[in-house]
Structures are given as C-alpha cells and as structure tokens.
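wait is this the right file?? whatever heres the structure
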C-alpha cells in the first residue's frame, strides 16, 4: 500500500519551502524594481528589516492556504499534468495579487507600469518556484506507477465475461494504470465466469475483504446488467468510503456530468465523488465551517430562548436526535429542536408528518413554519456530518422504499446531505413516499448542476422561505 499521507506531505512541505524561496526572490526583485534601494541603501539591510522578515514568515503561510483551497492536495497520485499547470498558475496569480495589495501597493514613488511589472514578476517567480517542485514529484510518481513499482490494491466488482476481460486488459497493458487486482466480487444475478485466477467473493463479504486486503479502489464492471441492479450494488459500495469507478460503456448513469479519472487506457468514471471541482469542494467545506460557526455564535441567544420555550411547552427533551443516512451511506445522528410530543413514534414504525398532524406541539408548528427547528443542524455541519446545501438526509426505512422504485437514489450519497436543498426550496416537506420521490427529482438535478453559485442561490431561496414562513 502506498502511503497517501506521506505523498501529500511531499507536496505540502515542498510547496512551503519553494514558497519561502520564491518570496525571498520576489523581495530581491522588489528591491531593484521599486524604491526600497533608496530607503535602505543595500539589499542586505532591506532583507533583514523588520517588515520584510515579518512578511517572509507570514506570506508563505498565506500562500499555503491558497494552495490548499485550490484543491491541489486532494488527489496526490494520479494528477493531470495540464490541470497541475493551470492550478499552479492561477493559485500563484491569486497569491501575487494578494501580496501586492496587502504589502506593496503603498510603496512610494513608483509608476503604474512598475506596479504591473512587480505583479508579473511575483506571479512568474511564485509559479516557477512551486511548479518546479511539483513537476519533479509528479513525474517521479507517474514513472513509479507506470512501471508497476507503485500500485493500488483494487477489487473488480463483477465476475462476468466483461469483468474478466477488463482484468486481462489491465494486466496486459505495457504501462500500468496503477491497479493491483486482488479479486472479483460477484454481482447478484450475473453469470459468473468459473475459471479465473484471482480470488472471488460475494457482495456480502466485501466489507471484510476490503479491510483484510487493505483495498484502496473499486472498479465496477457489470455484464449486461440492468441499471437498477448496478445502482443497488453501488449503493452498498458507498458505505466502504473508497473510490468507486465504473466503465462508462457498461452503465448509463443518470448524471451526465461525470468525472473521467483515467485517460491513459480505458477511461473510468469516478462516481464516488461529486461533480464539484477539488477547489470547489474545499471552498464549500470552508464556507460550511465558517457560516455554521458564525450562525451558532450569533444566534446563541435565540437558540437558548427556543430551547427554554420547547422545555416549557411540552414534556420531553429539548433536542430531538434521529438517525439519518449521510455521505457514503454512513448513518449519523441529526439534531433538531423537538417539535412533536415525546415518543411520537411509539409503534416503532417511522412516520412522516402531514397537515394538521396531532403529534406536532403548539410551539412546534411555529418552529417548523419558520424552519427554526433546523438550526441545531448547524452543529452537524460543523462536525462534518452535513453541509449547508445538499440533498436532505433520510432514514433507512424510507430509503429502502425509495430505492425499490428509483434505484438512482443511491447517487445522492455521493455528497454530504444538507440542511437545505433544491428539493426543500422547490418542493418542501414530503408527507409520503410518493412526495419524497417528487422531491428527489430536484436533488438529482442539483447533483448534475452542483456548483457554489447554485449553493448560494439555494441559500437565498431558503432565507426567503424562512422570512415568509413557508416552511410547512
């Protein structure tokens, strides 16, 4: 098994060292292009001045934040060379602009042309510094993978003719794609090829096998199976929290905006993550954390008042917890202010709310109308169970019913569930499974068109819904 953390550390430490060297070189250029040489007299005096030394400490750290947000460190083994260049170029450009407007814009006595020259010099030097190191590490990594010195333990999900043929193709390639095949996993209802050299497992064994064999990736290769069977199989794989790739000619997934993971050899569709870019994922998580922390702090007086009112209104706990299924099919405890009478589901069978539901308390009607009961879920967001925007999480009881009718529901587990969603703002609360299916169509549209801009639009619509009291 290749150590992913060690590989990521190579990039991070390398970027930090090169950012320091790059910024030191920028200060030398700044001395000669600007006016510091008149003020300090010598380069040594300038570089050892308090302001420059402080900048030498702070600016490389600031650059590392930008490099992290760019998503460059998300994938550390199979990097696209072209994408690496573009990511390094625009992140270095952002750092150059930030440095200029924070530290250099007030340097006196320069003309506008010199300002442009300084920005371009900083941009070029920072890009050259970080990309030179990144190129060395990426080239070495690519060489090690292609020559089969580095590889990733992989299971092929499927044991039919197509799966066996694909495994043979991988083994016969002159340059490796990095997959070290550890066995096949049978798909229910498939005609298995009997004579195979690798171990074969059932779908029920896959969790144990992945743990024992330290599996790092899964490739789904069905043989003329229906989309329903394949999606049901994939849904069981999400819980393993491993990269899941599918041969595009074997499954017609509903989402058209798929991510191609390998262009060398046969391309594979990565369905274990969202269509959002790596930088988008990092920014989305940063926004989630910052907004959630701000909401919990600013609205803490309101949260305390609501908690007191819930306690006085009816018997039972203030916070109601319920198990929902979230990212990669993992269960988590979701928090809400209690809006129903205590033990509202005494029969043990999960029930959805309906109009004039007698289980809803007097205060609960107002809390639900203005979505105030959802505020404790910002703690779920802060913990990483949820996002502010994403498909609404459901209980396993209802998920089973939904997937019997719409197997593509499995795809919503590609992302963290959300406090609000396109389905919630366009449809609202569902009172039965049929309505949940109607709302699901909006969630699938969201997955196809996932972006930070659309997240912002959904948040704006949600605020409008809350203000107008159309939460029921």
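ok assuming it is, sequence goes like this
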């Amino acid at each position: 098994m290749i150590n992913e953390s060690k590989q990521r550390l190579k990039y991070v430490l390398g970027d930090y060292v090169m950012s320091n060297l790059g910024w030191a070189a920028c200060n030398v250029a700044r001395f000669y292009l600007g006016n510091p040489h008149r003020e300090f007299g010598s380069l040594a005096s300038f570089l050892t001045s308090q302001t420059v030394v402080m900048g030498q400490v702070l600016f490389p750290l600031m650059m590392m934040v930008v490099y992290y947000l760019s998503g460059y460190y998300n994938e550390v083994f199979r990097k696209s060379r072209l994408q690496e260049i573009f990511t390094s170029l625009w992140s270095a450009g952002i750092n150059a602009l930030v440095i200029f407007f924070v530290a250099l814009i007030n340097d006196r006595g320069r003309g506008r042309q010199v300002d442009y020259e300084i920005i371009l010099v900083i941009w070029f030097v920072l890009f050259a510094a970080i990309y030179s190191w990144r190129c060395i590490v990426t080239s070495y990594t690519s060489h090690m993978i292609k020559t089969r010195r580095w590889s990733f333990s992989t299971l092929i999900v499927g044991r039919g003719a197509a799966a066996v043929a694909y495994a043979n193709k991988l083994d016969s390639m002159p340059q490796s794609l990095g997959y070290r095949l550890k066995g096949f996993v049978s798909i229910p209802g498939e005609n298995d090829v009997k004579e195979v050299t690798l171990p074969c497992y059932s779908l029920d064994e896959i969790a144990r096998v992945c743990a024992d064999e330290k599996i790092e990736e899964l490739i789904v290769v069905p043989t003329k199976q229906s989309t329903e069977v394949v999606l049901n199989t994939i849904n069981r794989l999400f819980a393993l929290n491993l990269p899941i790739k599918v041969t595009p000619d074997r499954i017609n997934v509903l989402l058209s905006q798929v991510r191609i993971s390998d262009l060398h050899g046969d391309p594979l569709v990565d369905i274990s993550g969202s269509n959002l870019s790596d930088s988008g994922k990092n920014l989305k998580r940063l926004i989630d954390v910052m907004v959630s922390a701000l909401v919990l702090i600013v609205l803490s007086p309101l949260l305390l008042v609501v908690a007191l009112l819930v306690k006085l209104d009816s018997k039972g706990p203030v916070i109601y917890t319920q198990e929902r299924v979230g990212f990669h099919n993992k269960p988590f405890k979701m928090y809400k202010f209690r809006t129903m009478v205590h033990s509202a589901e005494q029969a043990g069978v999960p029930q959805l709310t309906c109009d004039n539901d007698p289980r809803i308390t007097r205060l609960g009607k107002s809390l639900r109308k203005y979505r105030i009961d959802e505020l404790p879920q910002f703690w779920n967001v802060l913990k990483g169970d949820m996002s502010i925007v994403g498909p609404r999480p459901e209980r396993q009881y209802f998920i089973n019913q939904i997937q019997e009718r719409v197997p593509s529901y499995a795809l919503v587990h590609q992302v963290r569930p959300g406090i609000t969603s396109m389905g919630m703002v366009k449809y609202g609360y569902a009172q039965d499974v049929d309505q949940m299916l109607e709302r699901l169509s909006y969630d699938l549209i969201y997955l196809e068109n996932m972006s930070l801009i659309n997240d912002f639009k959904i948040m704006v619509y949600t605020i409008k819904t809350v203000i107008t009291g159309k939460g029921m």
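The first helix runs from residue 4 to 33. so i think its the right one actually
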